[in-house]
Amino acid sequence: MKLYTNRFAPSPRRVRMYAAEKGLALELVEVDIAAGETRTAAYLAVNALAEVPTLELDDGTRLTESLAICRWLEELHPEPDLFGRQPRERAAINSWIDRLMFRLYLPTTQVFRNTHAFWATRLKQVPEWGGLQRQAVEAEYDALDAAFADGEYLARGSFSMADIVAFTAVEFGKPSGIRVGDSRPALRRWYEAVGARPSARA
Amino acid sequence: MKLYTNRFAPSPRRVRMYAAEKGLALELVEVDIAAGETRTAAYLAVNALAEVPTLELDDGTRLTESLAICRWLEELHPEPDLFGRQPRERAAINSWIDRLMFRLYLPTTQVFRNTHAFWATRLKQVPEWGGLQRQAVEAEYDALDAAFADGEYLARGSFSMADIVAFTAVEFGKPSGIRVGDSRPALRRWYEAVGARPSARA
Question: Looking at this predicted complex, what is its ipTM?
């Protein structure tokens, strides 16, 4: 299987980290977003939305959207499970994933889009919105720090896809200067523990 | 099962429409967002994020996030399926759901949040961002109109959760004055067909 990816983008990193945790080998094809490679005719034929990641199967079928890709891989390779074994456990993990995508990942990307120099010449930025979204990210960091009072990982007693979604989102705060910092000890402990996993370098 | 819901909000409507398609009876508890009822101590004890929907099971367990709720209900009540029967079909539906949540639902909510009078006195609006998000919604409507050239429904030959996600998002464009209009015949045909289903009134 081939994964069209980009080394700086958070969504393909989600898939790479997932695959590393599962021990799945993916042939990586680097797509240079900064050089406009997602918008070439060749890549638009791969992914009409001009986005990474795209997973290409050996039969040529393509699948887009990072979470859909991971859910599909989970069906084909259920062990070790990262989406939960029982319906109730899967529900808890799915609930965390949705929450994290909308309350953590999304505002983090909007800070980057609206305040980072990378986009300044590429699209219309609205720094005021970026500032509000930065506040939303900081508030979610505080909420997560409180949530960890109950456990070592986010959605259950062991590592899951929810931790991958959260970790890759927090990592993507770095280029915008958003940091876990020292004032959130439980979040920081989790962040360092997840960052020490080999999959964090995938 | 009890569903904390709000008649105007798109996320609980997603769950109500899903449950109606499945023939599942939910006891509805209306939470008046405009009157501040999501932020009362009583409701924060139900959902600490001050959001609807929340599903409450008969044993008192609670589950938040509309898609996680629907995925969980799908495990308990697999027929008629709305998330796909085979891994490849489920992957296609999941890919559409993710795309629609981020490229259709999300910008639609941000138009509402940043330009509608409802929020003007409740939070800091950034109309310029709302305007850009309105353009993003219109562009996605155009893309969906083109996508329908291939079929009657979004993700497969029959109705699925992807159609529910899209329909409830399009419906939520109305208060912001976003319309399918007459220039997108395929999208309009789909919109009217889905709107004629009994579940559209749930």
Answer: 0.97
